Amino acid sequence: MKTVLAAVSALALLAAAPGPASAQDWSLEKAAAPYKGTQLNVVFLDRPGYRAIIKLLPEFEKKTGIKVNYEIVPYENSREKQVLNFTAKGDLTMALVDLVWIGEFAENGWIVPVETFTKDAAITDPKLNLPGFFPLLLDAFGSWGGKVYGLPFDNYSGLLFYNSCKLKQAGFDKPPATWDELLKTYAPKLTNADKKEYAYALQSLRGETQSADSFMRVLWPFGGSLLDKSFRSNLKSSASQAGLKFRQDLMQYMPPGIVSYDHAEAVNALAQGQVAMITEWSAFYSTLTDPKTSKITDCLAVAPEPAGPAGRLPALGGFSLAVAAQASEKEQKASWLFIQWATSEEIAKPYVEAGGVSGRMKIYEDPQIRATYKFVEPMVASWQKGVPEFRPRFPAWPAISEVVAEWGTKMMLKEVSTEQGADEIGRRMEDVLKKEGYYDGKKPLLQ
Fold it and tell me: What PANTHER family does the record tag this protein with (predicted)?
């Protein structure tokens, strides 16, 4: 973290360094003039933050004359699609980088460090203000090896969304403070299988949703982890097993077929009144408050994720936007202009109002924003406190994620016990890490 913050400070100085024009003379329109007519290509997801920036895109395109072409891709296919494009020297000019992809993308040379562009005052907004991002987000989503590669764009904190009306009807005037309380006290009273009403839904679709949003979510609060400090499997530890067994116990209060639930299904289950609680990303707040997609707008409430024996350790997720190394020089500079604009303090408020979640600290100091959006207070608290990187950010993660997704699903389906699943994941995971050189000193264990 210290290395990254030092890099951020250096970049901030570069961004503020005197250039051929004064800060008062700089404008997006002038900076973009040489790149008018440039076509940019990027992968977007079908999530609120992307719909928000798409809504604002005409403003950018009108000011700059730069066209942003986007393709909506399911999250589970987004990494593969980009990797294939980069290895084939395709047409993507920007990368959408999940926090667990940053190591892979940076070490393969697919994305360009931000310092390449901040040295050029003609294309760098004097108001860029890198220290204005939450440090946690800039570190986790956009930084690798002491360098900043991408700017936080679609930002998440795990939160407890719940139907306050259902809880009240069951005799509760507040949400569960702990996972144990959710399981033993709340879940039985909020579940009526005959009426197809359930207490909780945990998005668990096989893939990154299973490995990150389901499997890993129950490790940290119980004191467990995927790996120990020597990068050996820690899944057989009592704490890790406690978290995994907890998930198995909680399944009796979830809808049948929960292993096929992606984010959309979990959010919809709450929105339609089928479940009383979900732990989901802050970005889905706009979906749950939209009368077109939600029946519980008047009953929706938000709280921090429940605490476990190890404390309150909510999930952390999100993406950065980075310039693709395969793009031409002209496309790279135009992409940098777009990334600055899309993540800027200037459009943070309209972005949030359109359904996005900005990574900028300043926007959440706005009394109107704090009063209007119930997710802000618990989300900001988690980002300020700092949460564990509950998914390893090294290049080997995608291969390990596939292993975790396969055997995590088998655990939930009771095809294997949590102990058997931990054995399989541990053995296969360590094989991946051995091949990658993590045990022979070829690669550092920690970034």
Answer: ARABINOSE-BINDING PROTEIN-RELATED (PTHR43649), DIACETYLCHITOBIOSE BINDING PROTEIN DASA (PTHR43649:SF12)
